[in-house]
Automatic annotation (TrEMBL):
Residues 225-358 form the Peptidase S54 rhomboid domain. It is an enzyme of class 3 (hydrolase). This is Rhomboid family intramembrane serine protease. It is found in: Membrane. It comes from Shouchella rhizosphaerae. GO terms for molecular function: peptidase activity. GO terms for biological process: proteolysis. It is a multi-pass membrane protein. Belongs to the peptidase S54 family. It comes from the Bacteria. Keywords: Hydrolase, Membrane, Protease, Repeat, TPR repeat, Transmembrane, Transmembrane helix. PROSITE patterns: TPR. Its EC number is 3.4.21.105. SUPFAM superfamilies: Rhomboid-like, TPR-like.
């Protein structure tokens, strides 16, 4: 076989895989082409080499080099397993014994097998070997053209077409990955920072009353009609660490989603995911919560939708990182106390449904429209069901912690009578709840039931020695009953524990005033 025919054979094989079977071109050289079939599992990679190997040891070295390259590509593709072929197009086989060097080799997790194939000698032998080794690929019978000139022109045509197709595919992938520019994400991050500053300037971002005042997710008030809290909670964060972690994750994930979907679609996904996460939290979590975690996990959901629509591009670019981050965040949600896992899971589902509803840019097929409408309908039905379930749950059994939180809020507003049934219902659920017992003791004092209040406060201070408000109220009862020494001890504890409080309030001045009055009476 002469050189021109040899090269012509090589490029016709490349043409078949790259243009007719539409394999993706990984690398294109004059004598070597790497191709990938991203439509099958496991992923298939083919190396086609125009070879003039004379000796078996040279062939063996080349196979060793090919194995290293296959391993590199395996890592770059980001898939769990690949299979493939290392194909040598030879004019003549090596002159010495070479068949043993053509044994298959494994790569990666050792499940992926790469076959070594040698195509050589005359046309008849070539067709026979291709039928035996690559018969499922539909390679057509090979026939040389009448002249070298015609074959040279055909080689140039194939090379240009393969190159043009490869560049076109890469351009299309870049357009998919960078459809939009990250603009909205910066506006969202700025708004989150502004709201954090507002919280810090008005009592602190970890202060429960401040969080409630500025729109945290708080079930009792949502039930009363403040549904806007499902939305406003997305802009509040509890403490700097919470802000930092969510802000960093939003910056990277949000930027990726906005580039993939465009600014308008990203904004829709962000808020739909955040609201869905809040709805799940409202339905299944009684505790007060805030943060953009639902919207953040919505970005994960949108990226997973992208992974389903374009799995090859997803795993080559973002796939493994996204999946690893998702697993880590869910794991942290289960082991770190205080994390609203409901908002995380809800945001993930909501983000996926929202992405399916708005679709990726340039999704135009009718089937995609039907899926989009189905996703939107599913989102609406699920969200409405969650809100209904949450309303029924919040209006039903009283959670002692939430009863204490809401009753304390009403106490701060001076609405003691409104708080009274909440305290009673909470104590029915947990008769030794320290916060509720403290509030009930205060109500007992207002009703003139000092003895009952004293018993409750003594229990509270024995359970929680740091409860300075309980020590102070206990001091007042002792003082009123004429038990001066006990009153002195109690007020000293109130001052001591109050000074150690992370959020000391102006009540300590009142504690000292009472201490002075008790000391004057003692002397």
């Amino acid at each position: 076989m002469d050189t021109v025919v040899h090269r012509y054979f090589f490029w016709k094989i490349v043409e078949h895989y790259a243009l007719k079977k539409q394999f993706r071109v990984l690398a294109l050289y004059n004598t070597q082409v790497w191709l990938e079939d991203d439509t099958v599992k496991p992923r298939r990679v083919i190396r086609i080499v125009l070879s003039e190997v004379d000796w078996a040891n040279r062939l063996k070295r080349d196979i060793g080099h090919a194995k290293q390259q296959f391993n590199t590509i395996y890592k770059q593709l980001g898939v769990w397993e690949i299979q493939g072929e290392n194909v040598y197009v030879m004019s003549l086989p090596p002159v010495d014994s070479w068949e043993e060097t053509m044994e298959p080799f494994t790569i990666g997790n050792r499940k992926g097998k790469i076959r070594n194939i040698a195509l050589h000698t005359d046309t008849d032998t070539y067709n026979e070997i291709t039928e035996q080794t690559l018969g499922n690929d539909g390679l057509p019978p090979f026939e040389a053209l009448d002249s070298h000139e015609a074959m040279e022109q055909e080689i140039l045509r194939i090379h240009e077409n393969v190159k043009r197709t490869s560049v076109g595919r890469q351009t299309k992938e870049r357009q998919t990955l960078f459809f939009g520019k990250p603009r909205v994400i910066y506006a969202l991050l700025i708004s989150i920072l502004i709201m954090f500053s507002v919280l810090e300037a008005n009592g602190g971002s970890t202060n429960i009353e401040t969080l409630i005042d500025f729109g945290a997710k708080y079930n009792p008030l949502i039930v009363e009609g403040e549904w806007w809290r499902l939305f406003s909670a997305m802009f509040l964060h509890i403490g700097f660490f919470h802000l930092f972690m969510n802000g960093m994750a939003l910056y990277f994930l949000g930027s990726a989603v906005e580039q993939l979907f465009g600014s308008i679609r990203f904004l829709v996904i962000y808020f739909m995911a955040g609201l869905f996460g809040s709805a799940v939290s409202f339905a299944f979590t009684d505790s007060l919560s805030a943060g953009a975690s639902g919207a953040l996990f919505g970005c994960f959901g949108a990226l997973l939708y992208f992974g389903i629509k374009q799995p090859s591009l997803f795993f080559r670019t973002l796939g493994r990182s996204v999946i690893v981050l998702l697993i880590i965040n869910f794991f942290l949600g289960f082991i770190v106390p205080g994390i609203d896992i409901g908002a995380h899971g809800g945001g993930l589902v909501g983000g996926f449904l929202a992405a399916a509803a708005v679709r990726m840019p340039k999704e135009t097929r009718k089937t995609n429209v039907l899926w989009s409408l189905s996703a939107l309908a599913g989102y609406i039905v699920l969200a409405a069901s969650l809100l209904f379930f949450g309303y029924q749950s919040a209006a039903g059994t009283v959670n002692p912690d939430m009863a204490a939180l809401e009753a304390n809020r009403l106490f701060q507003q001076g609405n003691w009578e409104e708080a009274r049934p909440l305290v009673a219902e909470g104590l029915e659920q947990d008769s030794e709840h320290v916060e509720l017992l403290f509030l009930q003791a205060y109500l007992d004092m207002q009703d003139g039931k000092d003895k009952a209040a004293q018993e409750k406060l003594e229990f509270v201070t024995s359970e929680n020695r740091h409860f300075h408000q309980a020590w102070f109220n206990l001091a007042l009862i002792y003082w009123q009953q004429g038990e001066i020494e006990q009153a002195q001890h109690a007020v000293e504890e109130a001052i001591k524990q109050g000074e150690q409080d992370e959020h000391p309030d102006v009540e300590i001045d009142r504690y000292r005033e009472v201490q002075e009055e008790i000391e004057q009476q003692q002397h």
